[in-house]
Amino acid sequence: xxxxxxxxxxxxxxxxxxxxxxxxxxxxxxxxxxxxxxxxxxxxxxxxxxxxxxxxxxxxxxxxxxxxxxxxxxxxxxxxxxxxxxxxxxxxxxxxxxxxxxxxxxxxxxxxxxxxxxxxxxxxxxxxxxxxxxxxxxxxxxxxxxxxxxxxxxxxxxxxxxxxxxxxxxxxxxxxxxxxxxxxxxxxxxxxxxxxxxxxxxxxxxxxxxxxxxxxxxxxxxxxxxxxxxxxxxxxxxxxxxxxxxxxxxxxxxxxxxxxxxxxxxxxxxxxxxxxxxxxxxxxxxxxxxxxxxxxxxxxxxxxxxxxxxxxxxxxxxxxxxxxxxxxxxxxxxxxxxxxxxxxxxxxxxxxxxxxxxxxxxxxxxxxxxxxxxxxxxxxxxxxxxxxxxxxx
Length: 393
Hints:
By secondary structure, the chain is α+β, with helices and mostly antiparallel strands. It folds into two domains: 6-217, Up-down Bundle (Rhopdopsin 7-helix transmembrane proteins); 227-383, Reverse transcriptase/Diguanylate cyclase domain (Alpha-Beta Plaits), CATH 3.30.70. The protein has helices at residues 6-32, 41-64, 72-92, 98-110, 117-146, 149-173, 178-217, 227-244, 258-264, 267-284, 308-323, 351-367; strands spanning 247-255, 290-293, 298-304, 327-329, 332-334, 338-346, 373-377, 380-383. The chain has a six-stranded mixed sheet, with helices on both faces. A two-stranded antiparallel sheet has the order 4-5. A hairpin with a 2-residue loop joins β4 (327-329) and β5 (332-334). α2 packs antiparallel against α3, α3 runs antiparallel to α4 and α10 packs across α11 (308-323).
């Protein structure tokens, strides 16, 4: 240990920072290639690269033996802290306050040309403290809102810097305390940078994991649930229905002549039609209802604690809302109608059986001329006409 000089310690420290930055850049590069890059990825990349430049400048200044006319590491530290504020704000989705903090950053950086080194360090400590306090607030709020522990790590690192930098500035301006203050700032900045790198990595990986879980249960076109997501969402309500012998109804919705829409316009227009139909269904359903896309142009609505007649009323509302006026897609009016099948079951609900019954009712609505609502219950079939609900046995 005695053979390791101060210069060697500096280079070992720089090697550590360089390794952390390179590992972070590898992760950032991989995430940037994904279909949905994490928010703030670009600005955090700039922050990590600017931090590396800051450590290079600091290492050169401490080991070159040449006294620089401008305290370059202080300027880079201020700029880097402001970049971190912008990155945290972009990740949280709050752009407000950037102009004011940008003015503080510019004034602090320009003061390097007019103030002595000791006073400049005090300006750096105050500016960096303000910026990191902002980062702590933004990341802490995102941690609470998103339940993301990675943002909590970033907030903790920023809070550490917020508390330590004013103390370091006090040591520097105090008599014969300059070295103590700079060493404190150096050590805390190293720890904070490492924690921010770890926190950002943890945050985006947790976010990416949530994204993958959504892909497994969510239809990417409509943002509705898929079949797996439907089953997961209904576990509690079905158990409740079984326990209290409550009715559960299902509505199967199918877009009439959808192939003709694709052939006459395009598959892209067809996707727009599917999205608009999904929006209408979601808007008319209750928050307790579960809506899923189960096929190309088919949707399934499961209504807990709902009788068959109430489900038929909702089905008629959906049919009328979609069929009464053409959908506007890319400035084109496209007449769209839907056929709907309704089924109901009491107590213990077999989702597959309930879906089959709703699909059987949908088949009857299709055979009855489409743009209709049909329902099945105890071998009875109720079929509405296009002009209003009726019944047939």
